[in-house]
Design the sequence.
Protein backbone atom coordinates (compact mmCIF):
# COMPACT_ATOMS: atom_id res chain seq x y z
CA UNK A 1 0.00 0.00 0.00
CA UNK A 2 2.84 2.38 0.94
CA UNK A 3 4.54 1.55 -2.33
CA UNK A 4 1.35 2.38 -4.23
CA UNK A 5 0.98 5.70 -2.42
CA UNK A 6 4.63 6.52 -3.10
CA UNK A 7 4.23 5.65 -6.77
CA UNK A 8 1.14 7.85 -7.09
CA UNK A 9 2.97 10.69 -5.34
CA UNK A 10 5.91 10.39 -7.71
CA UNK A 11 3.64 10.32 -10.73
CA UNK A 12 1.78 13.37 -9.50
CA UNK A 13 5.02 15.24 -8.87
CA UNK A 14 6.59 14.33 -12.19
CA UNK A 15 5.07 17.06 -14.34
CA UNK A 16 6.06 19.74 -11.85
CA UNK A 17 9.62 18.46 -11.74
CA UNK A 18 9.79 18.32 -15.49
CA UNK A 19 8.41 21.81 -15.93
CA UNK A 20 11.26 23.20 -13.87
CA UNK A 21 13.68 22.36 -16.67
CA UNK A 22 14.33 25.41 -18.86
CA UNK A 23 14.09 25.43 -22.63
CA UNK A 24 17.60 26.18 -23.90
CA UNK A 25 18.01 27.83 -27.29
CA UNK A 26 21.44 27.58 -28.88
CA UNK A 27 22.16 30.73 -30.85
CA UNK A 28 25.34 31.88 -32.64
CA UNK A 29 26.99 34.77 -30.81
CA UNK A 30 30.32 36.61 -30.79
CA UNK A 31 31.01 35.44 -27.26
CA UNK A 32 29.99 31.83 -26.65
CA UNK A 33 29.10 31.07 -23.08
CA UNK A 34 26.84 29.27 -20.67
CA UNK A 35 23.06 29.15 -21.02
CA UNK A 36 21.37 32.00 -19.22
CA UNK A 37 18.23 34.07 -19.17
CA UNK A 38 18.02 36.64 -21.94
CA UNK A 39 19.47 39.98 -20.76
CA UNK A 40 17.19 42.98 -20.59
CA UNK A 41 19.39 44.63 -23.22
CA UNK A 42 18.40 42.04 -25.86
CA UNK A 43 16.52 43.33 -28.90
CA UNK A 44 12.79 43.78 -28.39
CA UNK A 45 11.89 41.14 -30.98
CA UNK A 46 14.17 38.58 -29.36
CA UNK A 47 12.68 39.32 -25.96
CA UNK A 48 9.19 38.96 -27.41
CA UNK A 49 10.11 35.57 -28.90
CA UNK A 50 11.62 34.26 -25.67
CA UNK A 51 8.73 35.64 -23.62
CA UNK A 52 6.16 33.98 -25.86
CA UNK A 53 7.84 30.58 -25.61
CA UNK A 54 8.21 30.97 -21.85
CA UNK A 55 4.57 31.89 -21.39
CA UNK A 56 3.20 29.11 -23.56
CA UNK A 57 5.53 26.38 -22.28
CA UNK A 58 5.41 27.66 -18.70
CA UNK A 59 9.16 27.31 -18.29
CA UNK A 60 12.16 29.61 -18.26
CA UNK A 61 13.68 30.03 -21.71
CA UNK A 62 17.45 30.45 -21.80
CA UNK A 63 19.83 31.55 -24.50
CA UNK A 64 22.93 29.44 -25.04
CA UNK A 65 25.50 31.50 -27.00
CA UNK A 66 27.51 29.29 -29.38
CA UNK A 67 30.15 30.02 -32.00
CA UNK A 68 28.13 29.07 -35.08
CA UNK A 69 25.45 26.76 -36.48
CA UNK A 70 27.79 23.77 -36.29
CA UNK A 71 28.34 24.42 -32.61
CA UNK A 72 24.58 24.76 -32.15
CA UNK A 73 24.12 21.34 -33.74
CA UNK A 74 26.79 19.88 -31.50
CA UNK A 75 25.12 21.41 -28.44
CA UNK A 76 21.81 19.80 -29.43
CA UNK A 77 23.47 16.44 -29.96
CA UNK A 78 25.23 16.64 -26.62
CA UNK A 79 22.03 17.49 -24.77
CA UNK A 80 23.36 20.94 -23.85
CA UNK A 81 20.62 22.75 -25.77
CA UNK A 82 17.04 21.97 -26.79
CA UNK A 83 16.33 24.14 -29.84
CA UNK A 84 18.51 25.67 -32.56
CA UNK A 85 18.45 26.86 -36.16
CA UNK A 86 20.60 24.58 -38.32
CA UNK A 87 21.56 24.44 -41.97
CA UNK A 88 22.39 21.25 -43.89
CA UNK A 89 26.11 21.53 -43.11
CA UNK A 90 25.46 21.84 -39.39
CA UNK A 91 22.85 19.11 -39.46
CA UNK A 92 24.83 16.42 -41.29
CA UNK A 93 27.23 15.50 -38.44
CA UNK A 94 24.41 15.23 -35.89
CA UNK A 95 21.66 13.77 -38.10
CA UNK A 96 21.38 10.59 -36.03
CA UNK A 97 20.45 12.43 -32.83
CA UNK A 98 18.89 15.65 -34.12
CA UNK A 99 15.86 16.28 -36.32
CA UNK A 100 14.27 19.26 -38.04
CA UNK A 101 10.82 20.34 -36.81
CA UNK A 102 10.02 23.69 -38.45
CA UNK A 103 10.99 25.67 -41.50
CA UNK A 104 9.86 29.11 -42.60
CA UNK A 105 7.77 29.45 -45.76
CA UNK A 106 8.83 32.61 -47.59
CA UNK A 107 6.01 34.94 -48.54
CA UNK A 108 4.53 33.97 -51.91
CA UNK A 109 6.14 30.52 -51.88
CA UNK A 110 4.45 27.14 -51.85
CA UNK A 111 4.80 24.58 -49.11
CA UNK A 112 7.73 22.21 -49.55
CA UNK A 113 5.52 19.89 -51.61
CA UNK A 114 6.62 16.33 -52.40
CA UNK A 115 7.82 15.62 -55.92
CA UNK A 116 7.48 12.35 -57.84
CA UNK A 117 9.75 11.10 -60.62
CA UNK A 118 8.34 8.15 -62.56
CA UNK A 119 9.45 6.03 -65.51
CA UNK A 120 7.73 3.42 -67.62
CA UNK A 121 7.69 0.09 -65.81
CA UNK A 122 10.36 -2.11 -67.29
CA UNK A 123 12.63 0.83 -68.05
CA UNK A 124 16.32 0.19 -67.63
CA UNK A 125 16.47 3.42 -65.64
CA UNK A 126 15.78 2.31 -62.08
CA UNK A 127 16.98 5.31 -60.07
CA UNK A 128 17.13 9.06 -60.36
CA UNK A 129 20.85 8.80 -61.08
CA UNK A 130 20.06 6.51 -64.03
CA UNK A 131 18.15 9.37 -65.65
CA UNK A 132 21.27 11.48 -66.28
CA UNK A 133 21.34 12.42 -69.94
CA UNK A 134 17.72 11.44 -70.47
CA UNK A 135 14.66 13.47 -71.32
CA UNK A 136 12.36 14.66 -68.52
CA UNK A 137 8.75 15.70 -69.05
CA UNK A 138 7.45 18.12 -66.42
CA UNK A 139 3.73 18.61 -65.86
CA UNK A 140 3.59 22.21 -66.99
CA UNK A 141 5.10 25.54 -66.07
CA UNK A 142 4.81 27.61 -62.92
CA UNK A 143 5.81 27.10 -59.32
CA UNK A 144 4.03 23.83 -58.57
CA UNK A 145 4.51 22.22 -61.98
CA UNK A 146 8.11 23.19 -62.70
CA UNK A 147 9.93 25.50 -60.28
CA UNK A 148 9.48 23.43 -57.13
CA UNK A 149 10.10 20.05 -58.83
CA UNK A 150 13.19 21.53 -60.48
CA UNK A 151 14.50 22.73 -57.14
CA UNK A 152 13.86 19.37 -55.49
CA UNK A 153 15.77 17.62 -58.26
CA UNK A 154 18.66 20.08 -57.97
CA UNK A 155 18.82 19.29 -54.24
CA UNK A 156 19.42 15.68 -55.24
CA UNK A 157 22.21 16.61 -57.63
CA UNK A 158 20.05 16.64 -60.76
CA UNK A 159 20.67 20.30 -61.47
CA UNK A 160 20.74 22.21 -64.75
CA UNK A 161 22.30 20.05 -67.43
CA UNK A 162 21.51 16.77 -65.66
CA UNK A 163 18.87 15.96 -68.25
CA UNK A 164 19.69 16.19 -71.92
CA UNK A 165 16.33 17.89 -72.41
CA UNK A 166 13.51 19.15 -70.23
CA UNK A 167 10.06 19.28 -71.81
CA UNK A 168 7.31 21.31 -70.25
CA UNK A 169 4.03 20.44 -71.93
CA UNK A 170 0.99 22.32 -70.68
CA UNK A 171 -0.51 19.64 -68.45
CA UNK A 172 0.39 16.44 -66.57
CA UNK A 173 -1.78 14.51 -69.04
CA UNK A 174 0.37 15.71 -71.94
CA UNK A 175 3.55 14.98 -69.99
CA UNK A 176 2.57 11.40 -69.22
CA UNK A 177 1.51 10.92 -72.84
CA UNK A 178 5.01 11.98 -73.84
CA UNK A 179 6.49 9.41 -71.48
CA UNK A 180 4.21 6.64 -72.69
CA UNK A 181 4.95 7.47 -76.31
CA UNK A 182 8.65 7.07 -75.66
CA UNK A 183 9.39 10.74 -76.25
CA UNK A 184 10.59 11.19 -72.65
CA UNK A 185 12.43 8.96 -70.19
CA UNK A 186 10.91 10.35 -67.01
CA UNK A 187 7.82 12.14 -65.78
CA UNK A 188 8.34 14.80 -63.09
CA UNK A 189 5.24 15.97 -61.19
CA UNK A 190 4.35 17.34 -57.81
CA UNK A 191 2.63 14.76 -55.63
CA UNK A 192 -0.80 16.34 -55.95
CA UNK A 193 -0.66 16.28 -59.75
CA UNK A 194 0.60 12.69 -59.62
CA UNK A 195 -2.30 11.68 -57.36
CA UNK A 196 -4.85 13.34 -59.63
CA UNK A 197 -3.27 11.82 -62.72
CA UNK A 198 -3.26 8.29 -61.37
CA UNK A 199 -6.52 8.17 -59.43
CA UNK A 200 -9.25 6.84 -61.66
CA UNK A 201 -12.95 7.48 -61.40
CA UNK A 202 -13.87 3.81 -61.10
CA UNK A 203 -13.58 1.76 -57.89
CA UNK A 204 -9.97 0.81 -57.18
CA UNK A 205 -8.81 2.16 -60.49
CA UNK A 206 -5.09 2.97 -60.88
CA UNK A 207 -4.33 4.81 -64.08
CA UNK A 208 -0.57 4.60 -63.55
CA UNK A 209 -0.09 0.85 -63.22
CA UNK A 210 2.27 1.00 -66.17
CA UNK A 211 4.58 3.47 -64.42
CA UNK A 212 7.16 3.08 -61.64
CA UNK A 213 8.19 5.78 -59.18
CA UNK A 214 11.98 6.00 -59.00
CA UNK A 215 12.23 8.95 -56.62
CA UNK A 216 9.92 10.83 -54.30
CA UNK A 217 10.89 13.63 -51.95
CA UNK A 218 10.52 17.24 -50.92
CA UNK A 219 12.85 20.11 -51.72
CA UNK A 220 15.54 20.29 -49.08
CA UNK A 221 15.11 22.98 -46.44
CA UNK A 222 17.74 25.73 -46.50
CA UNK A 223 17.49 26.06 -42.73
CA UNK A 224 15.26 24.64 -40.04
CA UNK A 225 14.58 24.77 -36.34
CA UNK A 226 15.92 21.52 -34.93
CA UNK A 227 15.61 19.54 -31.72
CA UNK A 228 16.91 16.24 -30.38
CA UNK A 229 15.15 13.23 -31.85
CA UNK A 230 14.41 11.95 -28.34
CA UNK A 231 12.50 15.08 -27.38
CA UNK A 232 9.10 13.93 -26.08
CA UNK A 233 6.55 14.17 -28.86
CA UNK A 234 4.17 16.30 -26.86
CA UNK A 235 6.81 18.96 -26.32
CA UNK A 236 7.82 18.84 -29.98
CA UNK A 237 4.21 19.24 -31.05
CA UNK A 238 3.71 22.12 -28.62
CA UNK A 239 6.72 23.88 -30.07
CA UNK A 240 5.26 23.42 -33.55
CA UNK A 241 1.83 24.53 -32.36
CA UNK A 242 3.25 27.67 -30.76
CA UNK A 243 5.36 28.64 -33.77
CA UNK A 244 2.78 28.05 -36.52
CA UNK A 245 0.35 30.89 -35.62
CA UNK A 246 3.11 33.24 -34.44
CA UNK A 247 2.75 35.45 -37.52
CA UNK A 248 -0.91 35.96 -36.55
CA UNK A 249 -0.59 36.21 -32.78
CA UNK A 250 2.75 37.85 -32.06
CA UNK A 251 4.22 39.65 -35.04
CA UNK A 252 7.27 41.03 -33.18
CA UNK A 253 8.18 37.56 -31.95
CA UNK A 254 7.62 36.12 -35.43
CA UNK A 255 9.77 38.74 -37.11
CA UNK A 256 12.69 37.89 -34.87
CA UNK A 257 12.07 34.15 -34.63
CA UNK A 258 11.86 33.72 -38.41
CA UNK A 259 14.60 36.20 -39.34
CA UNK A 260 16.89 33.40 -40.49
CA UNK A 261 14.82 33.20 -43.70
CA UNK A 262 14.31 36.40 -45.70
CA UNK A 263 10.71 37.47 -46.15
CA UNK A 264 9.20 34.75 -44.00
CA UNK A 265 5.43 34.39 -44.13
CA UNK A 266 4.86 31.66 -41.56
CA UNK A 267 6.42 28.71 -39.80
CA UNK A 268 5.55 25.33 -41.25
CA UNK A 269 6.25 21.88 -39.84
CA UNK A 270 8.78 19.69 -41.55
CA UNK A 271 9.97 16.14 -41.77
CA UNK A 272 12.85 15.00 -39.57
CA UNK A 273 15.42 14.83 -42.38
CA UNK A 274 14.47 18.05 -44.17
CA UNK A 275 18.09 19.23 -43.90
CA UNK A 276 19.70 16.01 -45.03
CA UNK A 277 22.06 16.77 -47.93
CA UNK A 278 21.11 13.83 -50.11
CA UNK A 279 23.08 13.60 -53.33
CA UNK A 280 21.57 10.50 -54.85
CA UNK A 281 21.77 11.69 -58.42
CA UNK A 282 25.40 12.77 -58.50
CA UNK B 1 -28.54 13.54 -34.09
CA UNK B 2 -25.38 13.32 -32.13
CA UNK B 3 -24.06 10.17 -30.67
CA UNK B 4 -20.85 8.89 -29.23
CA UNK B 5 -19.47 6.59 -31.84
CA UNK B 6 -16.21 5.25 -30.60
CA UNK B 7 -15.24 4.86 -27.00
CA UNK B 8 -11.77 4.00 -28.12
CA UNK B 9 -9.78 4.23 -25.03
CA UNK B 10 -10.20 3.69 -21.34
CA UNK B 11 -8.88 5.96 -18.64
CA UNK B 12 -5.24 6.68 -19.24
CA UNK B 13 -2.43 7.55 -16.88
CA UNK B 14 -0.37 9.16 -19.53
CA UNK B 15 1.23 11.80 -17.37
CA UNK B 16 3.47 9.54 -15.36
CA UNK B 17 6.09 7.86 -17.45
CA UNK B 18 6.63 10.64 -19.91
CA UNK B 19 6.83 13.21 -17.16
CA UNK B 20 9.51 11.34 -15.28
CA UNK B 21 11.56 11.13 -18.44
CA UNK B 22 12.07 14.85 -18.31
CA UNK B 23 14.28 15.00 -15.23
CA UNK B 24 17.63 14.87 -16.97
CA UNK B 25 18.37 18.56 -17.26
CA UNK B 26 16.88 18.73 -20.74
CA UNK B 27 13.60 20.44 -21.47
CA UNK B 28 11.96 17.13 -22.18
CA UNK B 29 8.96 17.07 -19.98
CA UNK B 30 7.37 20.47 -20.21
CA UNK B 31 3.65 20.42 -20.13
CA UNK B 32 2.98 16.69 -19.97
CA UNK B 33 -0.75 16.38 -19.43
CA UNK B 34 -3.29 19.17 -19.82
CA UNK B 35 -4.85 20.58 -16.69
CA UNK B 36 -8.50 19.67 -16.42
CA UNK B 37 -8.54 17.39 -19.44
CA UNK B 38 -8.75 13.64 -19.07
CA UNK B 39 -9.67 12.99 -22.69
CA UNK B 40 -10.01 14.69 -26.04
CA UNK B 41 -13.52 14.84 -27.49
CA UNK B 42 -13.49 15.34 -31.22
CA UNK B 43 -16.55 15.89 -33.42
CA UNK B 44 -16.48 14.42 -36.90
CA UNK B 45 -18.99 14.23 -39.69
CA UNK B 46 -20.08 10.72 -40.48
CA UNK B 47 -20.91 8.98 -43.75
CA UNK B 48 -20.65 12.11 -45.85
CA UNK B 49 -19.23 10.92 -49.15
CA UNK B 50 -17.77 7.72 -47.98
CA UNK B 51 -18.53 5.19 -45.20
CA UNK B 52 -14.80 4.54 -45.00
CA UNK B 53 -14.69 7.85 -43.14
CA UNK B 54 -15.16 5.92 -39.88
CA UNK B 55 -11.93 4.03 -40.44
CA UNK B 56 -10.20 7.24 -41.37
CA UNK B 57 -11.38 9.06 -38.28
CA UNK B 58 -10.29 6.13 -36.16
CA UNK B 59 -6.77 6.44 -37.56
CA UNK B 60 -6.95 10.18 -36.96
CA UNK B 61 -7.89 9.69 -33.32
CA UNK B 62 -5.15 7.09 -32.80
CA UNK B 63 -2.65 9.62 -34.08
CA UNK B 64 -3.96 12.36 -31.80
CA UNK B 65 -3.89 10.02 -28.83
CA UNK B 66 -0.27 9.10 -29.48
CA UNK B 67 0.63 12.77 -29.88
CA UNK B 68 -1.07 14.10 -26.78
CA UNK B 69 -1.11 11.12 -24.45
CA UNK B 70 -4.83 11.53 -23.93
CA UNK B 71 -7.58 9.13 -24.95
CA UNK B 72 -9.66 10.42 -27.83
CA UNK B 73 -13.40 10.00 -28.13
CA UNK B 74 -14.96 10.56 -31.50
CA UNK B 75 -18.43 12.00 -31.68
CA UNK B 76 -20.01 11.41 -35.04
CA UNK B 77 -22.74 13.77 -36.09
CA UNK B 78 -25.26 12.86 -38.70
CA UNK B 79 -25.72 16.42 -39.94
CA UNK B 80 -24.01 19.80 -39.89
CA UNK B 81 -26.01 21.06 -36.95
CA UNK B 82 -24.76 18.26 -34.72
CA UNK B 83 -21.18 19.49 -34.91
CA UNK B 84 -22.28 23.10 -34.52
CA UNK B 85 -24.27 22.43 -31.37
CA UNK B 86 -21.58 20.18 -29.89
CA UNK B 87 -18.99 22.90 -30.32
CA UNK B 88 -21.24 25.67 -29.10
CA UNK B 89 -22.27 23.77 -26.00
CA UNK B 90 -18.73 22.66 -25.18
CA UNK B 91 -19.62 19.00 -25.61
CA UNK B 92 -16.49 18.55 -27.72
CA UNK B 93 -13.02 20.11 -27.61
CA UNK B 94 -12.03 20.02 -31.25
CA UNK B 95 -13.74 19.51 -34.60
CA UNK B 96 -13.41 19.84 -38.32
CA UNK B 97 -16.07 22.14 -39.69
CA UNK B 98 -16.74 24.02 -42.92
CA UNK B 99 -16.60 27.80 -42.96
CA UNK B 100 -20.36 28.21 -42.97
CA UNK B 101 -20.72 25.97 -39.96
CA UNK B 102 -18.01 27.86 -38.15
CA UNK B 103 -19.83 31.11 -38.97
CA UNK B 104 -22.89 29.68 -37.26
CA UNK B 105 -20.83 28.67 -34.21
CA UNK B 106 -19.26 32.12 -34.15
CA UNK B 107 -22.71 33.69 -34.14
CA UNK B 108 -23.68 31.55 -31.15
CA UNK B 109 -20.60 31.63 -28.91
CA UNK B 110 -18.17 34.11 -30.44
CA UNK B 111 -14.54 33.63 -29.45
CA UNK B 112 -15.24 30.55 -27.33
CA UNK B 113 -14.46 28.62 -30.51
CA UNK B 114 -11.67 29.55 -32.89
CA UNK B 115 -10.24 28.10 -36.09
CA UNK B 116 -6.63 27.00 -35.73
CA UNK B 117 -5.78 25.19 -38.97
CA UNK B 118 -6.92 24.81 -42.54
CA UNK B 119 -5.56 23.00 -45.57
CA UNK B 120 -3.29 24.66 -48.09
CA UNK B 121 -3.20 22.55 -51.25
CA UNK B 122 -0.01 21.77 -53.12
CA UNK B 123 -0.58 24.56 -55.62
CA UNK B 124 -1.10 27.03 -52.78
CA UNK B 125 -4.89 27.16 -52.99
CA UNK B 126 -6.78 27.35 -49.73
CA UNK B 127 -10.30 26.89 -51.04
CA UNK B 128 -12.73 24.82 -53.05
CA UNK B 129 -15.68 25.49 -55.31
CA UNK B 130 -19.46 25.22 -55.35
CA UNK B 131 -20.73 23.47 -58.46
CA UNK B 132 -24.27 23.46 -59.84
CA UNK B 133 -24.78 19.88 -60.99
CA UNK B 134 -27.47 18.62 -63.38
CA UNK B 135 -28.13 15.32 -65.10
CA UNK B 136 -26.17 15.01 -68.33
CA UNK B 137 -29.31 14.07 -70.26
CA UNK B 138 -31.17 17.16 -69.06
CA UNK B 139 -31.66 20.25 -71.26
CA UNK B 140 -30.07 22.59 -68.69
CA UNK B 141 -26.88 24.26 -69.88
CA UNK B 142 -26.73 27.43 -67.77
CA UNK B 143 -28.08 28.52 -64.42
CA UNK B 144 -30.61 30.68 -66.28
CA UNK B 145 -32.13 27.49 -67.70
CA UNK B 146 -33.14 26.52 -64.17
CA UNK B 147 -35.61 29.36 -63.68
CA UNK B 148 -38.72 27.90 -62.07
CA UNK B 149 -37.14 24.46 -61.69
CA UNK B 150 -36.30 22.53 -58.52
CA UNK B 151 -32.98 22.88 -56.74
CA UNK B 152 -31.60 20.75 -53.92
CA UNK B 153 -29.31 22.46 -51.45
CA UNK B 154 -27.03 20.36 -49.28
CA UNK B 155 -27.85 21.76 -45.85
CA UNK B 156 -28.70 25.12 -44.33
CA UNK B 157 -25.29 25.05 -42.61
CA UNK B 158 -23.35 23.98 -45.69
CA UNK B 159 -20.93 26.56 -47.04
CA UNK B 160 -20.50 25.30 -50.59
CA UNK B 161 -23.91 23.68 -50.77
CA UNK B 162 -25.98 26.63 -49.56
CA UNK B 163 -24.44 29.75 -48.10
CA UNK B 164 -21.80 30.70 -50.64
CA UNK B 165 -23.63 29.91 -53.89
CA UNK B 166 -26.72 31.81 -52.70
CA UNK B 167 -24.58 34.87 -52.05
CA UNK B 168 -22.96 34.56 -55.46
CA UNK B 169 -26.36 34.15 -57.14
CA UNK B 170 -27.45 37.43 -55.58
CA UNK B 171 -24.27 39.08 -56.85
CA UNK B 172 -25.18 37.84 -60.32
CA UNK B 173 -28.71 39.23 -60.10
CA UNK B 174 -30.48 36.00 -59.20
CA UNK B 175 -32.66 35.97 -56.10
CA UNK B 176 -32.29 32.36 -54.92
CA UNK B 177 -35.51 32.61 -52.93
CA UNK B 178 -37.69 33.41 -55.94
CA UNK B 179 -35.74 32.24 -59.00
CA UNK B 180 -36.25 28.53 -58.45
CA UNK B 181 -39.67 26.92 -58.43
CA UNK B 182 -38.88 24.80 -55.41
CA UNK B 183 -35.90 24.32 -53.16
CA UNK B 184 -35.19 21.78 -50.46
CA UNK B 185 -32.37 20.35 -48.40
CA UNK B 186 -30.82 16.97 -49.19
CA UNK B 187 -28.98 16.69 -45.87
CA UNK B 188 -25.50 16.08 -47.25
CA UNK B 189 -23.42 16.14 -50.42
CA UNK B 190 -23.84 12.42 -51.04
CA UNK B 191 -27.56 12.63 -50.48
CA UNK B 192 -27.74 15.59 -52.83
CA UNK B 193 -26.06 13.65 -55.64
CA UNK B 194 -28.25 10.59 -55.04
CA UNK B 195 -31.39 12.72 -55.02
CA UNK B 196 -30.37 14.28 -58.32
CA UNK B 197 -29.61 10.85 -59.74
CA UNK B 198 -33.07 9.71 -58.64
CA UNK B 199 -34.80 12.67 -60.24
CA UNK B 200 -35.87 14.36 -57.03
CA UNK B 201 -34.34 17.68 -58.15
CA UNK B 202 -33.52 19.24 -61.48
CA UNK B 203 -30.22 20.43 -60.06
CA UNK B 204 -28.15 20.40 -56.91
CA UNK B 205 -25.19 22.32 -55.57
CA UNK B 206 -22.20 20.43 -54.22
CA UNK B 207 -18.53 21.05 -53.51
CA UNK B 208 -15.75 20.25 -55.97
CA UNK B 209 -11.99 20.68 -55.72
CA UNK B 210 -8.74 19.41 -57.15
CA UNK B 211 -8.81 21.81 -60.06
CA UNK B 212 -10.53 24.96 -61.21
CA UNK B 213 -13.38 25.96 -63.51
CA UNK B 214 -11.02 26.36 -66.46
CA UNK B 215 -9.30 22.98 -66.19
CA UNK B 216 -12.00 20.93 -64.51
CA UNK B 217 -12.11 19.25 -61.12
CA UNK B 218 -11.03 15.90 -59.76
CA UNK B 219 -12.46 15.67 -56.25
CA UNK B 220 -15.87 16.19 -54.70
CA UNK B 221 -18.90 14.17 -53.73
CA UNK B 222 -19.82 12.81 -57.15
CA UNK B 223 -16.18 11.93 -57.91
CA UNK B 224 -15.91 10.01 -54.65
CA UNK B 225 -19.22 8.26 -55.29
CA UNK B 226 -18.11 7.30 -58.79
CA UNK B 227 -14.91 5.77 -57.40
CA UNK B 228 -17.09 3.71 -55.08
CA UNK B 229 -19.22 2.58 -57.99
CA UNK B 230 -22.36 4.35 -56.76
CA UNK B 231 -22.81 6.67 -59.73
CA UNK B 232 -21.37 7.20 -63.18
CA UNK B 233 -19.62 10.52 -63.73
CA UNK B 234 -20.94 10.59 -67.28
CA UNK B 235 -24.46 10.92 -65.87
CA UNK B 236 -23.75 14.46 -64.63
CA UNK B 237 -22.78 17.87 -65.93
CA UNK B 238 -21.51 20.94 -64.06
CA UNK B 239 -23.13 24.06 -65.48
CA UNK B 240 -22.08 26.78 -63.01
CA UNK B 241 -19.29 27.15 -60.47
CA UNK B 242 -18.40 29.80 -57.91
CA UNK B 243 -15.48 30.06 -55.55
CA UNK B 244 -13.05 29.52 -54.15
CA UNK B 245 -14.70 29.01 -50.77
CA UNK B 246 -12.26 28.94 -47.83
CA UNK B 247 -11.40 25.36 -46.93
CA UNK B 248 -12.90 23.83 -43.82
CA UNK B 249 -11.24 24.60 -40.52
CA UNK B 250 -10.04 22.57 -37.59
CA UNK B 251 -11.51 24.51 -34.68
CA UNK B 252 -11.05 24.27 -30.93
CA UNK B 253 -12.80 25.50 -27.84
CA UNK B 254 -10.69 28.35 -26.51
CA UNK B 255 -11.62 27.55 -22.92
CA UNK B 256 -9.46 24.43 -23.11
CA UNK B 257 -5.85 24.55 -21.84
CA UNK B 258 -3.55 26.48 -24.15
CA UNK B 259 -1.05 23.63 -23.92
CA UNK B 260 -3.64 21.28 -25.39
CA UNK B 261 -4.48 23.69 -28.19
CA UNK B 262 -0.79 24.09 -29.03
CA UNK B 263 -0.10 20.35 -28.94
CA UNK B 264 -3.15 19.49 -31.02
CA UNK B 265 -2.31 22.13 -33.62
CA UNK B 266 1.30 20.98 -33.79
CA UNK B 267 0.48 17.30 -33.97
CA UNK B 268 -2.14 17.62 -36.66
CA UNK B 269 -0.03 19.99 -38.73
CA UNK B 270 2.96 17.66 -38.51
CA UNK B 271 0.99 14.72 -39.90
CA UNK B 272 1.69 15.22 -43.62
CA UNK B 273 5.40 15.43 -42.84
CA UNK B 274 5.70 12.81 -40.09
CA UNK B 275 3.19 10.31 -41.46
CA UNK B 276 2.32 11.06 -45.09
CA UNK B 277 0.60 7.70 -45.54
CA UNK B 278 -1.81 8.50 -42.71
CA UNK B 279 -2.35 11.97 -44.16
CA UNK B 280 -3.51 10.36 -47.40
CA UNK B 281 -5.54 7.76 -45.49
CA UNK B 282 -7.49 10.52 -43.79
CA UNK B 283 -8.67 11.59 -47.22
CA UNK B 284 -6.34 14.54 -47.67
CA UNK B 285 -4.84 15.37 -51.04
CA UNK B 286 -1.21 14.51 -51.48
CA UNK B 287 1.06 17.53 -51.31
CA UNK B 288 -1.34 19.50 -49.15
CA UNK B 289 -0.50 20.70 -45.67
CA UNK B 290 -2.16 22.43 -42.75
CA UNK B 291 -1.55 26.09 -42.14
CA UNK B 292 -2.44 28.26 -39.15
CA UNK B 293 -5.52 30.47 -39.42
CA UNK B 294 -7.71 32.50 -37.13
CA UNK B 295 -11.19 34.06 -37.26
CA UNK B 296 -10.08 36.66 -39.78
CA UNK B 297 -9.63 33.95 -42.43
CA UNK B 298 -13.39 33.28 -42.30
CA UNK B 299 -14.55 36.89 -41.90
CA UNK B 300 -16.16 36.94 -45.35
CA UNK B 301 -18.09 33.73 -44.67
CA UNK B 302 -19.22 35.07 -41.30
CA UNK B 303 -20.48 38.20 -43.06
CA UNK B 304 -22.24 36.11 -45.73
CA UNK B 305 -23.97 34.04 -43.05
CA UNK B 306 -25.18 37.18 -41.30
CA UNK B 307 -26.37 38.68 -44.59
CA UNK B 308 -28.16 35.50 -45.61
CA UNK B 309 -29.97 35.30 -42.29
CA UNK B 310 -30.99 38.93 -42.62
CA UNK B 311 -32.20 38.32 -46.19
CA UNK B 312 -34.22 35.30 -45.14
CA UNK B 313 -35.78 37.14 -42.24
CA UNK B 314 -36.80 39.84 -44.67
CA UNK B 315 -38.57 37.45 -47.07
CA UNK B 316 -40.54 34.27 -47.07
CA UNK B 317 -38.58 31.09 -46.63
CA UNK B 318 -39.26 28.69 -49.47
CA UNK B 319 -37.19 25.77 -48.37
CA UNK B 320 -39.19 22.69 -47.65
CA UNK B 321 -38.19 19.50 -45.91
CA UNK B 322 -35.69 16.95 -47.05
CA UNK B 323 -36.50 14.96 -50.15
Sequence:
Amino acid sequence: MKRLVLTIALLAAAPALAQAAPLRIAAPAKAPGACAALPASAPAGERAYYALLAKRLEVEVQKCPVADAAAAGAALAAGQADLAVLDPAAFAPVAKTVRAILTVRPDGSLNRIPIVVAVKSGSSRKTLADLRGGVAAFGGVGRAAYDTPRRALADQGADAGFFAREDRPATPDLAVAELRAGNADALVLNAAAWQRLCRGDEPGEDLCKDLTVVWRGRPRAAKALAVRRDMPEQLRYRLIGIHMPMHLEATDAFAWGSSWIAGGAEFEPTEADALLPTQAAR
Amino acid sequence: MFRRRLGLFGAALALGAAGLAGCGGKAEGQGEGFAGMSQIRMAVRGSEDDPRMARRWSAYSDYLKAATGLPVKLYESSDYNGTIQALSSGQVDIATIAGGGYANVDAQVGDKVTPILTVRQAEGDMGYYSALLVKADSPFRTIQDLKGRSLGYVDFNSTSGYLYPRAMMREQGIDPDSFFGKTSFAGGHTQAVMALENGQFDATIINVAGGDPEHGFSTGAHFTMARRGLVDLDDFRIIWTVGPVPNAAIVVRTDRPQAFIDAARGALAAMPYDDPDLWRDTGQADGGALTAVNRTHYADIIALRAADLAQRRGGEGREGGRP
In short: The radius of gyration of chain A is 23 Å. The first strand of chain A starts at residue 23 and ends at 28. Chain A has two domains: 20-109+221-269, 115-217.
